[in-house]
Amino acid sequence: MNTNKEAESTMISTEDWGIINEITAFIYTTQPYPDLSQIIEKLKEIIPYSHSFSCLISDDNKNIEFFSYQSKDIPPAHIELYRTQYINYDFILWYSVSPKEMTFRESDIVVEKYMAESIFMKEWMEPINAYYGAVSNIVADNYSYGNICLYRSKEEGNFSDREMAILKTINHHLCLRFKDIFPRGIQRSSFDQSKSLYKSTYHLTDREFEIVQLICDGVTRKDLAERLFISGNTLKKHLNNIYSKINIKNFEELLMTVRPGIKYIK
Questions:
Q1: How many angstroms separate the CA atoms of 251 and 243, rounded?
Q2: What distance in Å separates the CA atoms of residue 4 and residue 258, rounded to the nearest whole number?
Q3: What CATH number is given to the structural domain containing 236?
Q4: Cβ pair 147, 137 in contact under 8 A
Q5: How many CB atoms lie within 10 A of CB 242?
Q6: Parent domain of 105
Q7: Is the keyword Transcription assigned to this protein (predicted)?
Q8: Are 52 and 151 in contact (CB under 8 A)?
Q9: Reading across the β-sheet that carries 132-140, which strands appear in turn?
Q10: Quick one: which of 27, 124, 123 has its CA closest to 74?
């Protein structure tokens, strides 16, 4: 008898299970793969947090590459700083790429005093008022598929055992689903090749293609201009050119074109 699983199950309320079931249904029905940003957004109903991000991992059992960063509450420029600079200072990076399905509180892995004094805390976390973190490693058969990271301020307090049990339950289904879709791990080259077809097929400019790539990676319309460092009017002009070339009418149709089969959690 697995007493740990039984104990975790009793922490989760009937209301929690209702949200968990909605997220689980989304995980197994969305195509081409689960949108981690939508899962994170739905999780907020039962696991409060102030900041979050997710990423995918290209893993061929030789090299690991993080890509397709998504966040709806951390400024794109700050995510870019993480991707290009502070990932090397992240005090749980070594643990989050472990080839094992895991969900953990950062404070359970790293001594809190060390966290508070680290470069990563002072220069990347403190500017967004983040202190405590909860992380999910999406892993199966020694292949890493991605991470979900949730953050809270020191005033908001650490993540509870109940909340970690919920996150662990969701993460297990993510591991199963990604394994089913990508049995030999995610290869970023295949992602990039599928995107590049839009540029040659529809004769997109470099900027138009960059917009399509960002949409493929899950960047929302309201974040596109900031991510590209352009005005809303300039973005609108680029989008209208894309619509004309692909022969569609609006952003919703563009989203469905470049990310076929995408669904939304209610």
A1: 8
A2: 42
A3: 1.10.10.10
A4: yes
A5: 24
A6: 3-181
A7: yes
A8: yes
A9: 64-70, 51-59, 143-152, 132-140, 102-105
A10: 124
Torsion over CA: 45, 46, 49, 51 (sign) = negative
The tokens for 251 are 């952003």
- Determine the pLDDT at residue 160: 96
Locate 124 and state its tokens: 């990347």
CA dist., res. 133 & res. 7, Å (int) = 23
pTM of the model: 0.79
DSSP bridge pairs for 144: 139
pLDDT tens over the chain, length 266 residues: 455 655 565 689 999 999 999 999 999 988 778 889 889 999 999 999 999 999 999 876 567 889 888 888 998 889 989 999 999 999 998 887 788 899 999 999 999 899 999 999 999 999 999 999 999 999 999 899 999 999 999 999 999 999 999 999 999 999 999 999 899 888 877 666 666 777 888 889 999 988 988 887 778 888 899 888 999 999 999 999 999 998 889 988 887 777 655 555 55
Is residue 136 located within the same domain as residue 121?
yes
**Pairwise CA distance, residues 199 & 213, whole Å:** 10
Q: Could you tell me where the DSSP H helices lie in 148-262? A: 161-181, 188-202, 206-216, 221-228, 232-246, 251-258
Total Cβ atoms within 10 A of residue 156: 15
Strands 143-152 and 132-140: antiparallel
**Residues 16, 221: Cα–Cα separation, whole Å:** 30
- 79 and 20 in one domain? yes
Q: Read off the amino acid at residue 66.
A: F
